[in-house]
């Protein structure tokens, strides 16, 4: 097993852009490629657990605030994929961090004892700037920014990148934006062209790559209704193939940056 850690935060300051779908499918993708993977939901909406139909006994808040062991809090989705679910009590974790010393390092310090357990960690964060998002970015140091085909989603992507730059400037966090991922792309819609133009400008301004686009696909909703990742539900669907192209690229980039080998 490759010792290099794959760590990724999926972030956009706008909700409804496909963050959770991307995070869940990437975690499943890694698990199928032999990576012992931990998927963490730091959003109080608990969408990851809903999507995967998981009902754990303990949640993210128990792990971070009440110091339960990770083993007590994770739910296993498959032999290579454990999930640390969020729920409404996650807001308590945010409050607890507010008064903590070196709060940006809180998640890093909590996860360090489990470094040898997992080869990959994927984190889904809430669509707002908060301490949990900051701590997640500082821990993972790699960020994927999905962008839906609406202008507010584009603004959210800008805000996410501004946060990355701020953390890098203030605390030398060395966070890398791996790229922006266009989602629910339908070239027949005029707004798609506007958003893609905005992404081109963002790419040039911030030197961020534009990743392969993920096309609209009814199978995404069908997979959700079946409580499965799209890649598990129908790996041959057009959106699944698009996600795989993105995941291949960002995994290769992270491993190359870390000096590891691609599986």
Explain how this protein is built.
This protein is α/β, with parallel strands linked by helices and 263 residues long. It has a single domain, classed as P-loop containing nucleotide triphosphate hydrolases (Rossmann fold, 3-Layer(aba) Sandwich), CATH 3.40.50. The chain has 12 helices and 7 strands. Helix 8 links the parallel strand 6 (142-148) and strand 7 (176-183). Helix 8 (151-171) packs parallel to helix 9. The chain starts with 5 loop residues before the first strand and ends in a 5-residue tail after the last helix.
Principal-axis shape equals globular
Give the overall pLDDT as a whole number. 93
Level-1 CATH class name: Alpha Beta
Strand tally:
7
CATH homologous superfamily annotation: P-loop containing nucleotide triphosphate hydrolases
Strand content: 5-15%
What class, by secondary structure content? Answer: alpha/beta
Give me the CATH architecture, please: 3-Layer(aba) Sandwich
Q: First CA to last CA: what distance? A: 9 Å
Give a quick rundown of the structure:
This protein has 263 residues and is an alpha/beta fold. Helices cover 47% and strands 14% of the residues.
Keywords:
single chain, 263 residues, alpha/beta, Rossmann fold, seven-stranded mixed β-sheet
SSE blueprint and pairings:
Elements: E1 6-10, H1 19-32, E2 37-41, H2 47-51, H3 60-64, H4 70-73, E3 75-78, E4 81-84, H5 90-98, H6 106-111, E5 120-124, H7 131-140, E6 142-148, H8 151-171, E7 176-183, H9 190-206, H10 218-225, H11 230-233, H12 238-258
Parallel strand pairs: 1-5, 1-6, 2-4, 2-5, 6-7
Antiparallel strand pairs: 3-4
Helix pairs in contact: 8-9
């Amino acid at each position: 097993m490759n010792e290099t850690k794959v760590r990724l935060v999926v972030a956009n300051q706008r909700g409804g852009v496909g963050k959770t779908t991307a995070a869940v499918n990437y975690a499943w993708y890694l698990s199928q490629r032999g990576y012992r993977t931990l998927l963490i939901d730091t959003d109080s909406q608990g969408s990851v657990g809903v999507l995967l139909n998981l009902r754990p006994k303990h949640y993210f808040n128990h792990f971070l605030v009440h110091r339960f062991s990770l083993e007590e809090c994770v739910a296993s989705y498959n032999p290579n994929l454990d999930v640390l679910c969020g729920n409404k009590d996650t807001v308590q974790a945010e409050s607890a961090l507010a008064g903590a010393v070196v709060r940006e390092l809180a998640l890093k310090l909590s996860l360090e004892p489990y470094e040898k357990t997992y080869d990959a960690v994927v984190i889904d964060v809430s669509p707002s700037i908060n301490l949990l998002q900051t701590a997640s970015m500082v821990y993972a140091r790699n960020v994927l920014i999905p962008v839906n085909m609406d202008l507010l989603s584009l603004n959210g992507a800008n805000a996410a990148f501004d946060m990355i730059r701020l953390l890098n400037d203030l605390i030398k966090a060395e966070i890398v934006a791996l790229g922006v991922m266009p989602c629910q792309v339908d070239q027949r819609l005029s707004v798609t062209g506007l958003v893609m133009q905005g992404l081109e400008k963002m790419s040039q301004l911030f030197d961020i790559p534009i990743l392969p686009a993920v096309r609209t696909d009814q199978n995404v909703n069908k997979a959700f209704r079946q409580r499965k990742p799209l890649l598990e539900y129908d790996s041959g669907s057009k959106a699944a193939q698009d996600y795989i192209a993105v995941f291949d690229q960002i995994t290769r980039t992270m491993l190359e940056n870390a000096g590891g080998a691609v599986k």
